[in-house]
Amino acid sequence: MNETILLQIRSLLEDYSLQEAQVSNQLNRLLPLLKVVEQAELHGHLSKAQLIRLYHMLPLLSLHTSVQEHVTWKYFNDKVCEDCLQSTYLSRELLDELTACYRQNNYMSLESIVIENLKADRISPSDGADLDTLFLGKAFRKEAAAFTCREIVRTGGILNKEQVIQLLELRAYKSLEFALNSKGVNKEGLLVFQNPATQEMDGKAKVRLYQLAQKRLIIL
Q1: Quick check: 174 and 149 in contact, CB under 8 A?
Q2: Residue 58 structural domain
Q3: Cβ-Cβ contacts under 8 Å for 34 (sequence gap 6 or more)
Q4: Are 199 and 172 members of one domain?
Q5: Rounded Cα distance, 67 and 104, in Å
Q6: Average pLDDT over residues 178-202
Q7: Helices (H), 85-200
Q8: Which pLDDT value is given to residue 208?
Q9: How far is CA 170 from CA 77, 202, 213, in A?
Q10: What's the pLDDT at 128?
Q11: Cα–Cα distance between 141 and 103 in angstroms, integer?
């Protein structure tokens, strides 16, 4: 990173006596002096306040799309980390801001933030249902389905045969193990689990699920 240019960029972002247009004009002069790889790393060299100001100026800056995505990811990732310290679920306000940005820019890194928070059960069930209509990637579909099934079990519900088959097809083995350990699968669903063939893909995980299902069937 060119330290001289970096210091000038930081100074501009901290100068609130300048109008936004003045700052953006100066940034558009300085940023091209950095290599693209340096621009992509810029977000990691800024303070929280500097990053926030840079993020809100992105529409005025002549930056490569990948660089803008890096800045955007850091902005939202920081906000998510802050939100996690304050409540069980991400706030609706933050999710609305993130999804609005995704609709406008279609950044895959924003979808990855949502996926990670689904995995961690950091998104409320009602908000999770709303996200289903926006994110269509395979990874999201898997985590959304797994999240929904975990929520069913957490609230005392029971997974049926069709839901078990869906989770197996999605390879959502951890969610299935959670359901089995929570006694959250009905008899028809338990019968879906089969002892895998030798060298079958994901064999170790499938053996574990099969054994758990057999234990439940013995009790029923």
Answers
A1: no
A2: 1-63
A3: 1, 2, 5, 42
A4: yes
A5: 16
A6: 95
A7: 92-105, 108-119, 125-131, 138-154, 161-169, 173-181, 187-190
A8: 97
A9: 26, 12, 18
A10: 85
A11: 17
Calculate Rg over the CA atoms of the chain: 23
- The answer to whether residue 143 is domain-embedded is no
The yes-or-no verdict on residue 2 having pLDDT over 80 is: yes
List of long-range contacts for 212-217, beta carbons under 8 Å, 24+ apart: 212/177, 212/180, 212/181, 213/180, 213/185, 216/180, 216/183, 216/185, 216/190, 217/187, 217/190, 217/191
Structure tokens at 124: 């409320």
Return the residue matching tokens 């000038």.
8
Would you place residue 27 in the very low, low, confident or very high pLDDT band (cuts 50, 70, 90)? very high
Q: Indicate whether 106 pLDDT > 80.
A: yes
**Interhelix angle 48-57/20-30, nearest 10 degrees:** 90
Q: What is the pLDDT of residues 45-68, one digit of tens each?
A: 999 999 999 999 999 999 999 999
Q: In this predicted structure, what is the pLDDT of residue 150?
A: 94
Residue finishing a domain among 136, 169, 192:
136
In whole angstroms, what separates CA 144 from the centre of its chain?
11
Q: What is the per-residue DSSP string for 22-45? A: HHHHHHHHHGGGS-HHHHHHGGGG
Write down the mean pLDDT value for the chain.
94
